[in-house]
Amino acid sequence: MSLSSVKNFARHARYVMTENPVTALAALLFLLIVIAAVAGPALVPYDPMATDGGRALQPPSWDHWFGTDHLGRDVFSRVVVATRLDLMISLAAVAIAFVIGSAMGAVAGYFGGWADRITGRLLDTIMAFPLFVLAMGVVAAAGNTIENIVYATAIINLPFYARMARAEVNIRRHAGFVQAARLSGNGDWRILAQHIFPNTLPPMMVQISLNMGWAILNAAGLSFIGLGVRPPTPEWGIMVAEGANFIVSGEWWLAFFPGVALMLAVFTFNLLGDGLRDLVDPQRRT
């Protein structure tokens, strides 16, 4: 990528941010999430794994901003450190689903025939199950490790990209610019990879952003029911599950702050979708 291309992309990104303040807010929240994920363990005031029975179940204070849990662990430190794990699970799962799903859908939409029929039946099989129940089944059968949570989340997100890529490629495969590329001597795979597929990315950027939020919710949901990340690893779903046992007795902060962090993460990715679409849309780069 040349220096001029980088400058043009930066100028376009600045235009998108200034045109839509909501996108700028989402970008700011996303930056905070990334900072917490990358530098969180170095920034927190306490060891998130250290226990101290003498300070158990303390409410929020200047010493412990989010209070402490039933083992005396600092809730703020655990919420911040948990950002890295939840974001890694979400990024890995969505990346796998996007790469495999978009490739399957693009091939099915361009070539049709047996590729289209086989892909369609496979996606119909996945979509026949309630997606969270399917993720539960995959993790329960394969074991509740982080890798299996990523694979299960990727599997349930696969149909979204495959169907969207198929529809977008199928619409464009007879377009004028495709015919021009074919008359210029380009083969089918080159046309698909360099001419058609880049034009399918804008709508898929919105789907990627939405799926990032859903992937975090899925990982937290699996942890909440005991099929996700295992304690004592800091993770938002586990923290909400542990805190739910103490809400009745008045220790509201145990579930409240991890729940707020989870909500803000999903909210951020939902808002970020339109901005990502505008950034990669060729029609908006004028």
Q: Name the CATH superfamily assignment.
A: MetI-like
Largest sheet: none
Mean pLDDT: 86
* Radius of gyration, in angstroms, nearest whole number: 22 Å
Helical amount? over 70%
| CATH architecture term | Orthogonal Bundle
Number of domains: 1
In the predicted model, the low-confidence regions spanning at least 5 consecutive residues are none
Discrete helix count: 10
Strand count: 0
At CATH level 3, the topology is: MetI-like fold
Strand content: under 5%
Topology:
Layout: H1 3-19, H2 21-43, H3 75-111, H4 113-127, H5 131-142, H6 146-172, H7 176-183, H8 188-224, H9 236-244, H10 253-280
Domain ABC transmembrane type-1: 83-273
Keywords: Cell membrane, Membrane, Transmembrane, Transmembrane helix, Transport
Subcellular location: Cell membrane
Descriptive report:
- The structure is a single chain.
- With 286 residues, the chain is mainly α.
- It has one domain: MetI-like (MetI-like fold), CATH 1.10.3720.
- Helix content is 74%, strand content 0%.
- It contains ten helices and no strands.
- The chain has helices at 3-19, 21-43, 75-111, 113-127, 131-142, 146-172, 176-183, 188-224, 236-244, 253-280.
- It is a multi-pass membrane protein.
- Belongs to the binding-protein-dependent transport system permease family.
